[in-house]
């Protein structure tokens, strides 16, 4: 690895804190508010499908026609799952009478179109972007990534889509952006990601994000990185610290790629943003 001294120091200290168990209590990540749209009535799974499709508002053709919009020529639908019920006679033991009940018999796919793929009457949506972009946003821009802010879903804070060259975020929490940016860097290091929730890729992204957070003076350290890494490591039958050590070379390459793109001058400035003087003093204060 060809990390700068401070970056290497930050990474080493994070690993040391994991090893010694110096992990504080977790702090909840605040999600962005939802829009007033029909998808609010969907199941969580369907709202997640919409989120990963990169849109904050998806509807069926009839729903779009009701508001004076229609799919653009050549646009493609995505699909959600809609439950199918039948009415079935059932005997009420207490009343001694026969009643009808709805019984779930399966699901069908229903095509929906993102607002971005429709045209017609204007649709008003609140702008969810933060007043000021997060640190390293210029790296995402230089790599041709579209950073999109979407309504919160209560489960997933963000995603990186290689196919759409997009980072989707439903929080202004900068650590979530760092995590997805690290996925994008890892994609460039590896050439391709496996997709899904690969434990190695998740550990690389979260450990790199934790290091970037420390370098940029983001406080407090809420212990979320360790818990996230431990969850993915244990699902793969591995110890969290050993999992970190097994991927540390990839973490270094991702950090190198991001910091090189950001530029040495930008990184040095960011280290002093907290107003505590020397960057080394900042690191000593924010790291365990």
Arithmetic mean pLDDT: 83
Following the backbone from N to C, one meets helices and strands in this order, namely HHEHEEEEHEEEHHHHHH
Please give the number of β-strands: 8
Roughly how many Å is the radius of gyration? 23 Å
Class by SSE composition:
alpha+beta
| Strands in their spatial order, largest beta sheet | 1-4-3
Number of helices: 10
- Strand % is 15-25%
Secondary structure blueprint with pairings:
Elements: H1 5-20, H2 44-52, E1 58-59, H3 61-66, E2 69-71, E3 78-92, E4 97-114, E5 118-120, H4 137-142, E6 146-149, E7 158-161, E8 166-169, H5 174-190, H6 199-215, H7 224-235, H8 240-262, H9 264-271, H10 279-286
Parallel strand pairs: 6-8
Antiparallel strand pairs: 1-4, 2-5, 3-4, 7-8
Characterise this structure.
This protein is of the alpha+beta class and 288 residues long. The protein folds into two domains: 5-32 and 127-286, no CATH class; 38-120. 42% of the residues lie in helices and 18% in strands. It has helices at residues 5-20, 44-52, 61-66, 137-142, 174-190, 199-215, 224-235, 240-262, 264-271, 279-286; strands spanning 58-59, 69-71, 78-92, 97-114, 118-120, 146-149, 158-161, 166-169. The strands form three sheets. A three-stranded antiparallel beta sheet has the order 1-4-3. Strands 6-8-7 form a three-stranded mixed beta sheet. The protein has a two-stranded antiparallel ribbon with strand order 2-5. A hairpin with a 4-residue loop joins strand 7 and strand 8 (166-169). The longest helix is centred in the last third of the chain and has 23 residues, at 240-262. The two termini are 23 Å apart. The relative contact order is 0.16.
């Amino acid at each position: 690895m060809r990390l700068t001294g401070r970056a290497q120091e930050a990474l080493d200290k994070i690993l040391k804190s994991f090893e010694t168990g110096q992990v504080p209590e977790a702090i909840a990540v605040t999600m962005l508010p939802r829009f007033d749209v029909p998808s609010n009535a969907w199941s969580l799974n369907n709202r997640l499908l919409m989120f990963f499709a990169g849109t904050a508002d998806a509807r069926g053709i009839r729903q779009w026609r009701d508001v004076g919009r229609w799919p653009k020529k050549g646009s493609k639908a995505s699909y959600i799952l809609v439950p199918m019920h039948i009415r079935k006679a059932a005997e009420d033991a207490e009343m001694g009478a026969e009643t009808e009940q709805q019984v779930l018999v399966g699901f069908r796919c229903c095509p929906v179109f993102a607002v971005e793929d429709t045209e017609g009457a204007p649709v008003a949506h609140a702008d969810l972007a933060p007043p000021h972009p997060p640190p390293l946003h210029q790296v995402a821009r230089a790599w041709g990534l579209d950073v999109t802010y979407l309504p919160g879903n209560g489960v997933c804070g963000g995603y990186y889509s290689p196919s759409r060259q997009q980072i989707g975020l439903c929080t202004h929490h900068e650590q979530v952006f760092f995590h997805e940016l690290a996925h994008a860097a890892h994609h460039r290091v590896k050439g391709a990601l496996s997709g899904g929730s690969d434990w190695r890729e998740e550990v690389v992204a979260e450990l790199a994000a934790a290091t970037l957070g420390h370098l940029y003076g983001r406080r407090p350290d809420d212990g979320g990185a360790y818990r996230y890494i431990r969850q993915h490591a244990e699902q793969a039958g591995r110890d969290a610290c050993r999992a970190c050590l097994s991927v540390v070379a990839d973490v270094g390459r991702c950090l190198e790629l991001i910091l090189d793109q950001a530029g040495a001058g930008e990184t040095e400035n960011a280290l002093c943003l907290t107003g505590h003087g020397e960057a080394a003093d900042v690191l000593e204060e924010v790291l365990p």
